[in-house]
Specification:
The complex is a heterodimer. Chain A has helices at residues 16-28, 45-49, 56-82, 95-121, 158-167, and strands at 6-13, 34-37, 145-150, 172-177. By secondary structure, chain A is of the alpha+beta class. In chain A, helix 3 (56-82) runs antiparallel to helix 4 (95-121). The model of chain A has no long low-confidence stretch (mean pLDDT 93). In chain B, 65% of the residues lie in helices and 0% in strands. In chain B, helix 3 packs across helix 9. Chain B is globular. Classes of the chains: A alpha+beta, B mainly alpha. Chains A and B meet through helix 1, strand 2, helix 2, helix 3 and helix 4 of A and helix 1, helix 6, helix 8 and helix 16 of B.
């Protein structure tokens, strides 16, 4: 393939501690478009990367809110408005008897909101990612850790970025092309 | 930090005294690469002989399940032994039995997650799978019990030619929503946990087809920390949502009984008692499945004796709660001063179904008490035998609640003695075939243990632990 463009520089690490240390260095150097790839969530990595708190909670909240609203509306509309039937002299609509169903609807849509929100914020699913072009990258789900700094970053320079990652202690640094 | 207490023989950490040290969650200091190789390896390579030996009979029994459904549909519910007054009979017994089993999975994945019980990571994947398959088995029964199975969609709030809607004041409809929500949310939770592990399978795949199929399931997961950050938050929120869900589902199942006016059913103790019983039976089934699994697939280093022991303790706790509930039911039946209620309970223990009642008490109240002894909790064959007793006992509990409360109703001219027919029996046996078929397929094609989660609880994963690469021990 000839028309490939440079995506960035990938540095491999062997331990969680080295990766955490490297992430803090990259953060302090002021890079914006970069990421750390790990086989499991590393404790403290969000702080080391300087990430803001995840926004998934909003998706859960609005999912749940939609669920309880739609649930109660459905019960009221079906049992008290569209086809009212009196059963056992009980009121046509009451938030008490409606609660179990409206509650289940809240949980259901809240759960869809959480999963959907996570996928949306992560821009998943996607069929390909440039980092997969590196043959060593398949170890990311096994026992290796990677720091990738994108060429699109304003501070990116071949020599400087490579030097920073070497300083961080990476034994293997390579260029990723897309 | 908790991880630091999990591993022995690391001198650089100021240690807790030796007798307070816990057994590590992964034995022999196995590293994170070993975990991938070993756990994913179960679902790779040639299909082992034991798998076929288990799969073929399970599959045949599953076919029996489907044949019984077809026979019932083509002939009518009269092929079952149910009648008036025992109209719920075996079918609802089996439904509640399977739904109860389904409760351990979400308990392990959600409640133990919120309580930061890190040992859950070795067993949550298989327990969640068990939940989903148990709920599938459970859903078979009420659906065919309605008789005209082709009208089953009337349970859902869908417009139909009669322009009528479901009746939301009925606990039976609450149950439809509770069970279907439980199934859906359990499936979402399970799938979300699987995403990083499907990526493990994708990256290890030797053939193009496996790579593509696992790759599609993994949704392009890269292990990016920006993704992990959202992922962990979403996982926490799903756990937070599933916790009240799992408690509500069996509460709502118990409303099917408690909201009615049948003596023996109409009690306020039912929701907590049903939830405790569900967790009890669910852990029983988890142990029944896990003990053979860990030795056949050589997973003893990940599902350790400590894990089994902890599950035994959960069984002991919930078994004692169930025993308390049995006692309290009798007390309230007497203290409440309602002669019908008192009769229902006397009849339960000493009436025609006395044998079912005392089987239940032996299995559910007496057998878990053995787990006070460490020997009983650590001998695998022994735990396995007790777990079978728990399964039997919990089936009898539902049978006792349903059959003994119904078979002598208000008019003695109505009284009857329910006996199952061969169709009843094979229908129930058949669901075990369905359950085992699904579970065996799961073992063969998906990672049975949450690989990335177990990696996360090893000391090798802790950047502040010497094994995780920390240059100096202790805190940051």
């Amino acid at each position: 393939m000839s028309a490939t463009t440079k995506y960035g520089i990938l540095a491999e690490f062997e331990t969680a501690a080295d990766t955490l240390h490297a992430a803090a260095l990259v953060r302090d150097a002021g890079y914006q478009r970069w990421d750390v790839y790990t086989p499991f969530p590393v404790h403290g990595m969000d702080e080391a990367m300087g990430l803001a708190k995840s926004k998934v909670g909003w998706f859960t909240f609005f999912g749940g809110l939609t669920g309880i609203t739609l649930g109660y509306f459905m019960i009221w509309w079906m049992n008290a408005y569209d086809y009212p039937i009196v059963v056992g002299g009980k009121p046509l609509f009451s938030p008490i008897y409606g609660f179990p169903v409206a509650y289940e609807c809240t949980i259901l849509l809240g759960a869809f909101g959480s999963l959907g929100g996570m996928l949306f914020l992560n821009r998943l699913p996607r069929l390909h990612h440039p980092v997969f072009n590196s043959p060593r990258f398949s170890k990311v789900t096994h026992d290796r850790f990677f720091v990738v700094i994108e060429a699109a970053d304003a501070k990116f320079s071949d020599a400087e970025t490579r030097k920073l990652l070497e300083k961080a202690g990476s034994k293997h640094i390579e260029e990723v092309r897309d | 930090m908790a991880t630091q207490q999990l591993i022995k023989s690391v001198p650089s950490i100021p240690h807790t005294p030796k007798e307070l040290e816990r057994q590590p969650l992964v034995l022999n200091g196995r590293g994170i690469g070993w975990l991938s190789d070993h756990i994913a390896g179960v679902a790779e390579g040639r299909t082992p002989k034991w798998w076929w030996t288990a799969f073929v009979p399970s599959f045949l029994i599953m076919l029996v399940c489907f044949s019984m459904v077809l026979y019932l549909m083509s002939t009518g519910v009269g092929v079952w032994g149910l009648m008036i007054p025992v109209a719920w009979a075996w079918d609802i017994t089996n439904f509640v039995f399977w739904i109860g089993i389904g409760h351990a999975g979400t308990l392990i994945s959600a409640i133990l997650f919120l309580l930061r019980q890190r040992w859950r990571t070795s067993i949550n994947r298989a327990a969640e799978a068990m939940t989903i398959f148990a709920v599938i088995c459970a859903m078979v029964f009420p659906l065919i019990h309605i008789g005209r199975i082709w009208l089953g969609w009337w349970l859902l709030p869908l417009p139909n030619a009669n322009s009528i809607w479901p009746q939301f004041r009925s606990p039976l409809l609450w149950d439809v929503f509770a069970v279907s929500t439980y199934f859906t949310v359990s499936l979402l939770f399970w799938y979300m946990g699987l995403i990083p592990d499907l990526a493990v399978m994708r990256d290890r795949a030797k053939s193009k087809i496996r790579q593509m199929l696992y790759g599609l399931g993994a949704l392009g997961w890269t292990g990016s920390n920006r993704h992990w950050s959202n992922y962990e938050k979403a996982y926490l929120l799903l756990a937070g949502l599933s916790t009240p869900l799992v408690l509500s589902v069996h509460s709502i199942v118990s409303f099917d009984f408690a909201v009615s006016q049948v003596p023996g059913w109409h009690t306020t103790i039912f929701p907590p008692y049903f939830v405790a019983g569900a967790i009890f039976s669910g852990f029983g089934m988890v142990l029944t499945l896990m003990i053979p699994l860990r030795s056949i697939c050589h997973l003893e280093e990940v599902i350790t004796t400590r894990h089994v022991e902890l599950m035994c303790k959960v069984i002991l706790a919930t078994g004692s709660m169930v025993g308390y509930a049995y006692g309290m039911e009798f007390f309230i039946a007497w203290y409440g001063g309602n002669p019908y209620e008192l009769y229902a309970f006397k009849n339960r223990a000493f009436g025609p179904y006395w044998w079912a009642y005392w089987t239940m008490v032996t299995c559910n109240v007496v057998s878990p008490q053995l787990f006070w002894f460490k020997w009983c909790r650590t001998k695998m064959w022994f735990v396995f035998v007790v777990s079978i007793f728990v399964n039997i006992g919990m089936w009898f509990e539902r049978f006792v609640i349903i059959a003994t409360s119904l078979h002598r109703d208000y008019m003695p001219s109505n009284w009857a003695y329910f006996q199952p027919t061969w169709v009843d029996i094979w229908q129930f046996v058949g669901t075990f075939g369905l359950f085992m078929t699904l579970f065996l397929l799961f073992i063969r094609f998906l990672p049975v243990i949450a690989i990335s989660e177990v990696k996360g609880v090893t000391p090798q994963a802790d950047p502040h632990h010497p094994l995780g690469g920390a240059k100096t021990g202790g805190h940051h």
